[in-house]
Design a protein that fits this description.
The structure is a single chain. By secondary structure, this protein is mainly α. The chain has a domain of 224 residues: Peroxidase, domain 1 (Orthogonal Bundle), CATH 1.10.520.10. Helices cover 48% and strands 3% of the residues. It is built from 14 helices and four strands. 33% of the residues are buried. The N terminus and C terminus are likely disordered. Its EC number is 1.11.1.7. It comes from Panicum hallii var. hallii. Belongs to the peroxidase family. Ascorbate peroxidase subfamily.
Amino acid sequence: MRSIEGISMAAAARAAAPLAALLLLLTIAAVPPPAEAHVQIGAYNKTCPQAEDIVLKEMTAILAKSPNLAGPVLRLFSVDCFVGGCEGSILLDSTASNTAEKDSPLNQGVGGYQVVDAIKAKLEAACPGVVSCADTLALAARDSVRLTKGPFIPLPTGRRDGNRSVAADVAPNSPPPGATIADIIALFANKFNLTAKDLAVLSGAHTIGRARCSTVSLRLYNLGGRNGASDPTLDGNYTATLRGQCKPGDNATLVDLDPPTPTTFDTDYYTLVAGNRGLLSTDAALLLDPATSAYVAAQANATSPDQFFADFAASFVAMSRLGVLTHHKGEIRQVCSKVNQPAPASTNAGAAAGRSYRTAGLALITTLAVALLI
């Protein structure tokens, strides 16, 4: 066996083994944790295994009493995701020094907050400080689809809550007034990495829910700024029906987005849009792009909702991943309308002590490693 100055290679290897182990431990200790975790199916399986059952039970009871709340909850989730990501910022109240997203003029018709608050209270009672408001909303929206005869969507969880909610952030993440279908598709692609198909699929959420008359009044009475002019692309009989429901200047009355089946998640929305009876201008705009128009036609003529259900599940999950906060980012709010109060000094002291122990441990490892090198 070869030797170095009288020391056999085997002996040298045996002597070096403890040093190698310590150097490996030193290296591992010095490596920072992953910068970002990811949402995953069953994120609460160990920390709050009953979480999804609690949400489903509460949503079942809520929709049994108020079926029309399914649409608002579903819309509330999409509004949250498209402004800053799916991190519950839409749920925060305004303060004396800040106007929150929920009070943006563009969000005046958004509702469903009380549903999230009620479910979050149940989750806090069962598992304090575990399930985020962002996930509470995401799961409630998922169950809004399921409980209105739509598909069950396996939904990744593990989102944490953000603490920024600014009304000025809403407009840059929304289609501007007068936006064309090309503008909306570009917004989806450039800001959200979603496709024209995703736009057509997610628009299918309008199969449930209602909208204020103010969202359709221009199409009924003032198209292009011409007093009394209605939208010629809107079916004439439907225009007459809507004028009977929405009088000039009426901003409060709610009308069904899908009148034949307003509380059933189905493909009837696409039948309406294909027949020029889509309530919103963005619904009608789907007919003006080849990709979105083709999807509308395919679903309007489908003999089964299966393809739409599969597509919606995929696009819904893609949307649900937008801008999520996980791992060390964000917080778990105790009350969804307010950010958590700063931790008590004793908690901060404990965290500092933990960091001190870790620093001391790292120093000890370094000292031992250096000693073995001498």
